[in-house]
Amino acid sequence: MQDEAVPHDDAPDDRILAAVARRADANPDLLVEFARGAIRRVPGALLARTNREVAADWMLDAFTWFHDTPADHLSVRLHNPEVALDGRSTPGTIVEVAGVDRPFLLSTVSRTIEHVGESILRHVHPIYGTQRDADGHL
Question: Which of 56, 94, 99, 115: CA 20 to 30 A from 105?
Fold first, then answer.
């Protein structure tokens, strides 16, 4: 689904966050705060080109994966999305890491990728302060 090709009064991140909130089955505030943290370091020019529906789908998927990763685990996943944030096809791989932030985590993952001969186009490194209940839920 492509965004309408008309100007919007809202900032791009506000439109993305509104699309994220519409996807929440429960606790939309928690999902929106997660998404806000994920996009806060994304350059404004990229956000302006972002298809809000694609971005919202990505945020919901990332939140579910992060939520389901036990607090004491480090989880890494790779995926090749069919559609980039701007709605076009993408030839790249996304590497995501969920777990407690550790010294050298980003540099270790980056160097491992470079060591096997791949290059990194962009880092997005949101760090979330989280609390989990006794059952491990955010």
Answer: 56
Question: Tens digits of per-residue pLDDT, 80-127?
Answer: 887 776 667 777 888 888 888 788 888 999 999 999 999 988 777 777
Q: Which residue has the tokens 């791949």?
A: 118
The pTM of this model reads 0.74
CA–CA distance, 43 with 79 (Å, rounded to integer): 22
- Contact between 48 and 84 under an 8 Å Cβ cutoff? The reply is no
The DSSP result for the chain, as a single string, is -PPPSS--SS-HHHHHHHHHHHH-SS-HHHHHHHHHHHHTTS-HHHHHH--HHHHHHHHHHHHHHHHHS-TT--EEEEE--SB-TTSSB----EEEEESS--TTHHHHHHHHHHHTT----------------TTS--
Q: How many CB atoms lie within 10 A of CB 14?
A: 12
